[in-house]
Every structure is written in structure tokens, then in C-alpha cells.
Amino acid sequence: xxxxxxxxxxxxxxxxxxNAGNAKSDAMEAIQAAKTGDFALAQEKLxxxxxxxxxAHHSQTGLLTEEASGNPMTITLLAVHSQDHLMTSLxxxxxxxxxxxxxxxxxxx
Length: 109
Known about the structure:
Layout: H1 7-35, H2 39-68, H3 77-107
InterPro entries: PTS_IIA_lac/cel, PTS_IIA_lac/cel_sf
Keywords: Phosphotransferase system, Sugar transport, Transferase, Transport
Organism: Enterococcus viikkiensis
């Protein structure tokens, strides 16, 4: 087994990190927009976060497909970090949707 990731694996891991990070940033911007009452922008940012998570999942699916095809990846701290980043972003995105909804509900009262 190789001690390093292939170039394709590294690109997939970096895709996970970048897209998960973008999703988390967009979700945070959605909360900030909702806080100021700009619910159209908040929804736009939540949509962007969802799209970034789809892209992250594509990277993850590529890695899983490679593994299932008999091409296992060397587990590195970077690979573990990418999975952690994705899971954190998924959770944050779900919570951001709830926070935006709460701000919107409060603004209608």
C-alpha cells in the first residue's frame, strides 16, 4: 500500500475541504442576513450552501467509489480532516436553516 495519496485522491480530499468550508461560510452569511432582516439574501446563501454541500458529496462519492473498486486510499490526517469538515458543515447548515427560520418567524410577529 502506498504511503501517500494519489493526485486524484488529494484533489478529491481538497474538494471536500473547500466545498465544505464554502458551505459553512454561506450558512453563516445566511444567519447574518436573517439577523438584519434580509431574508431573500439569507435564502440565497442557504441555497449556495446546499449546492456547495452537493459538490462536497461528489468528492466524497468519488473517494468511496475508488475504495469500492479496490483502490483504497491511504488514511492521512488530511483525509480525516476532510471528513470532519464535511460533517461539521452538514450540521452547521442544518442549524443555520433553523436559525434563519426563527429570525423570519420573529420578524413576522
